[in-house]
Amino acid sequence: MSDIASLHKSLVARILEGKGQASPEIRRAAFDGVGLAEPVHTFVDKVAHRARMVTDADIGTLRKAGLSEDQIYELVVCAAIGQATRQYESALAALSAATGSN
Amino acid sequence: MRLAILDHGHGIRTKAMFALIRIFSGHPVVDPVKFAFYRPSFYRAGGLTQEAMRGPSEWSVADRELMAAFVSKVNGTEFCIAAHTATSAIAYNDGAKVSATLADLETAPLAEPLRATLRMLGKLTRDSTVDADDMRAVLAAGASEQHIKDALAVGFAFNVTDRLADVFDFAVDDTAAINAGAKYLLTRGYR
Fold first, then answer.
1. Which residue among A1, A20, A94 sits closest to B132, beta carbon to beta carbon?
2. What pLDDT, in 10s, does the model give residues B64-91?
3. Inter-chain residue contact B166 with A11, CB threshold 8 Å
């Protein structure tokens, strides 16, 4: 498989810069997992690190805070891809260190 | 599904397609399909997942489905464990091999390059990081640099998908629907 890097780059660009109902700044913060106000910060951290522990009540908290379902959908996608990207890039760097390649 | 938009928010053409799927497959439309067809212009990760799971690689399709099941086991994502255990079992024509791997990686009947690669993917998934020594161990077991890169693409795809399945609460289907979905993934892929 040769074009994973370009597919990954275009996926990240689409979710962060494409048309959405959450602002690009909030989407970027969800992707990075930093710079978010509560209750979004706690929710995004849970998506990144304890996704299976997310409950209906967590979604309800976001609704009560005024987020629409589309905004919640976008933040979850950004948080999931952000955490998986950090894992992936950590592993590629470790592989480069092990093989001595760039 | 935790968001109503993912169940009912699709456009009329997509809803008509879902009706046809229900009629011709005899099964309800599964949650990952509903998710994939909701605002595909926003997410649309099928291209990357298709390349990771079905693109050219020295890993077999069965090996990559086993990686997907294994990563999902570490994440504890019930939907993806069920779906990719079934898909890998059919692809290998060896359900016992898949079950043994998920039960105990160290004693499962696997070639060492695959075992070492799964061990590394497990650590990466659990700890979110690996180091050069972890990679040297995989290389020493006989996996090539390209083997590892290909496995990391599978790991990326399922560390995304598992989170989405858990947060949106994809329903685990009955055995017949799981096996039908597995056969679909083996004939049509992830597009």
1. A94
2. 999 999 999 999 999 999 999 999 999 9
3. no
